Amino acid sequence: MYRQTLIAAVLTLGLSGCIINVNASGYRAEFLETRQLTLNAAELSALQAETGAGDLHIKEVDGLQQIRVTATIYGKPGMEYELTLEQHLHSARLIAKADASGRWQNSPYIDLTVEVPVNLNLKVSDGSGDIVISGGQNINIDDGSGDIHITNSHGELEISDGSGAINILHHTGRISIDDGSGEIRVASVNGDLYIKDGSGSINTTDVSGNVTIDDGSGDIQISHAGSLNIVEAGSGNLIIDGVSNTAGRK
């Protein structure tokens, strides 16, 4: 079990290679440091990530026997932040959050690259910033804002998103999306797809199972699906191609 609670120190120009700018708008978030965390994954079946502001990249790596985290921290010298990776029973828990108190021209954030073993369940609770996941199984995402990109995943995929684009490519298993706003694009799915959307366009291609759409506003384009159920189409154009079994409101 590893636990690291990290407090960024004041960095001199010679160490950081960056200049501290102070003006009437407050401090500008700047590069502070890069940290690395590792955790043995021999007894782990899941990763739970709790992240604030910043991009999150999760990549499945064949043959890897540990979880490896690279964190790049941006903010104000002397600020506090939390960065921990520890084991709880058979799950790994990653926390990455920066202190956003005070006057900021740009808020602090932590960019994360996470390498995980094959067949690790993923649960992500994220504040803001893009999420990119390559591989993974049984993925659950609760996201505030920022784009979401997922490729080559399998199992149950559940996304609850406030705003930002969602792109899913090559998934085996059921997908459920509850989205506030932003474009949704889903392609090459072996399983069922459910989408509840507030606003933004929806585009699905090559879904072998049933596609269910409950939409508020925005164009909808469905191309090649096993079947289609439109609960509510909302406002916007509706284009259906290559679907023989269609039900619901249009």
Order of strands in the sheet with most strands: 13-14-16-18-17-15
Counted up, domains total 2
User: Main beta sheet: strand number and arrangement?
Assistant: 6 strands, parallel, barrel
Span between termini: 54 Å
Oligomer: single chain
Gyration radius from CA atoms, angstroms: 21 Å
* Strand-residue proportion: over 45%
Mean pLDDT: 88
Count of extended strands? 21
The DSSP helix count reads 1
Helices and strands, in N-to-C order?
HEEEEEEEEEEEEEEEEEEEEE
Structural class label: mainly beta
What's the shape? globular
Helix content: under 10%
Descriptive account of the structure:
With 250 residues, this protein is an all-beta fold. The chain has two domains: 1-116, no CATH class; 147-250, no CATH class. It contains one helix and 21 strands. Strands 13-14-16-18-17-15 form a six-stranded parallel β-barrel. A two-stranded antiparallel ribbon has the order 1-2.
